[in-house]
Design goal:
Layout lengths: L13 E2 L2 E9 L10 E8 L3 E9 L4 H7 L2 E5 L8 H16 L3 E5 L4 H9 L3 E7 L5 H4 L4 E7 L2
Antiparallel strand pairs: 1-2, 2-3, 3-4, 4-5, 6-8, 7-8
């Protein structure tokens, strides 16, 4: 899907203590299988950046099997407060505009991310090996656990 065809995100995406600050839509790079994605900063109290969330739109093998549609990162000083879960829930209205359900993945030893995924109520699908040709392999991931989330 071309980035120019993506709808703008709804205003005021928030859940509990977290709000998402829209940064733009990255067009991706179809030549290497990278799909367009929405970029957000995760904020607490409307002013403190605590991390980021990306929502990828597309169904390449890279997305479906290894990186998922939703990616999040909470900065180390702010971990342990449930901000990743709240950010996913804040993004849910946008996700529902495009998909009925999405894939979220995690390395099997990323216990914080696995906990977030489970608290979202995502359903475990499988664990897959990451092939050496995928960028996740180059980043150090050898296996991914895949979940389906219906926000």
């Amino acid at each position: 899907m071309l980035a120019s065809l993506l709808p703008p995100p709804p205003e005021n995406l928030s859940f509990d203590a977290v709000s998402l600050c829209f940064q733009g839509i990255d067009p991706g790079n179809p030549l290497v299988g990278l799909v367009p994605f929405y970029q957000f900063r995760i904020q607490v109290g409307g002013m403190f950046d605590v991390g980021k969330l990306n929502f990828r739109v597309g169904g390449t093998e890279h997305v479906r099997l290894y990186v998922g549609h939703i990616g999040y990162e909470v900065l180390e000083p702010f971990r342990g407060h449930g901000y990743a879960e709240q950010a996913c829930r804040a993004a849910a209205p946008l996700v529902r505009l495009i998909y009925r359900s999405v894939i979220i993945t995690s390395d099997p030893d990323n216990y914080a991310s696995l906990s977030t995924i489970e608290r979202l109520g995502a359903v475990f699908l499988e664990e897959v090996s990451v092939p050496p040709r995928d960028s996740q392999y180059l980043a150090g991931s050898r296996r991914k656990r895949r979940y389906r989330w219906t926000p």
